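Notebook, p. 212. Picked up where the previous page left off. The plan for this session was modest: take the two constructs that came back from the sequencing core last week, fold each one, and keep the raw output in the notebook itself so nobody has to go hunting through shared drives later. Recording the first one now, exactly as returned: residue sequence, then the structure token string.
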Amino acid sequence: MSAPLVSILVPCFNAERWLAATLESACAQTWPHCEIIVVDDGSSDGSLALARTFAGRGVRVFTQPNAGASAARNRALREARGEFFQFLDADDLIAPDKIAAQLSLLATRPAGTLATCAWGRFRDDSAQARFIDTAVFRDFAPLDFLVLGGRTGAMMHPSAWLVPRFVATQAGPWNEALSLNDDGEYFCRVILASSGMAFCRETEARSFYRSGLPGSLSQRRSERARRSQFRSYELIAQHLLAAEDSPRTRQTVADMFQRFLYDFYPFPADLMRNAERLVAAHGGSALPPPMGSKTAALVRVLGWRNVWRLKHLLRR
């Protein structure tokens, strides 16, 4: 049997500052059968020109009018020829042996298994990334992972996965109507279409998630982002309950929408009302609000909703 081809899929929008390092990490993979596909999503900086300088190293570059990260990923999927997919955002990095180590692991597992790996957050220097086990650095059955993620917010970021093509095909394309948490909704479907998740414990198998960039928080706090997050949670709840309607999945849905309330309360008001309704409809949540000791003292006096309203007013 011939060695499988892996498609490394890189959506890019105005990532000139980081793209070269990302593509270098893709080109440096020790697995010899990789193709690298960059889809420039209407960048206004030098991203497209920079990506084209890698053409001599086997990088295939496509461009399209700006349509969002999910649309760029879908274009990359349509162009991909590989048997496995490695998603790699244009500001993230993967270690040189990441793909090779994950493929070696998957060769010992049932068909349709997803590979994951340790991932760490960094801002400027990947050597400073911290690989903290957030309870996801292990093997999972599909529903077990989704229950953990829905109830606690634990996650695998997109570059940590290696996805067999036929699993991705069964899951369907990225939802282009979503912006915030489009990856959470997509990988929910991928996980449910899989045979399970295999965590690669090789120290060489790592991915690096660039976080804390300027503007990222404001984009997350926009009304459009909040509505996308809420819609993604609605879809995840539908996928989860269609797979298993049970006390644990209903509790997961309630906790997921409770976390949404804690993340975004009190704006927009209609989403807050809908989130509260969905928490109640799925049995209620005992999830405590995330807060430090000073905030906890205020919450004991005023209640968390009033404290969150005060925080919202102070941010304006």
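Okay, moving on. Second construct, recorded in the same format:
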Amino acid sequence: MKIYQYILWVLVFCSIDAYAQKDTVIIYKYGSFLFEASDTMKVDFIVKGSPLKQRISKGDTLYHDSKYIILGDASKRIGMGIYKRYKLKYKFESFKTSIYKGKLAAPDFTSDPSAKFYKTMIKTQCKAQGVNFAGHYTVIEWGCGTECENIAVVDRLNGRIYYTTIPYGGDEGYYGTKYKANSRMLIANSFNLDDHKGYALIRDYERIRILEWTGLGFKKLPR
């Protein structure tokens, strides 16, 4: 088999497999919770403190917290995990700011010497992105491993870089961010919101954080 024929076969096979997996996903919703399964299953949705008349599920614990227990068949559950209905408490419009239209300063690596290790990344994105955050800043993003993302913020008025002062990794980290050019608000770990509209992935770390840019760094907004 010639190499181009092999590549074509692989692409077709992977495409068929992807569609097959997509077609077999079943969405289960109980109360404010949601999860995905590869096949039908019986589920027990238990409110702690309330009697369970008869268990109908296989009995595997899919989720539990101080109020609820969800039992089912763990071998059929797929996806990232359990999702819970989520509504953003804050809106980008509540932190609105005007967008600077003047000449943009190049990043000043003397303002944060550690940023020089990512000089190409920062310079390239500054040029390509322009002002994309909080009126006169550029947010720079790059991966740092599995479910890990570094960010830096560059002030396009004077080129000052904020990198080492921005926490990353673990619960304080960034894996997916949402922001707007005319708002000081940033959603950290926004990938938790990407799979199902109106739901957030439940995680013990890299949880959703709503942050406000103060001009010197990020301030966490109350949940």
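Notes on construct two before I forget. The chain has a mean pLDDT of 85.
Flagging for discussion at group meeting.
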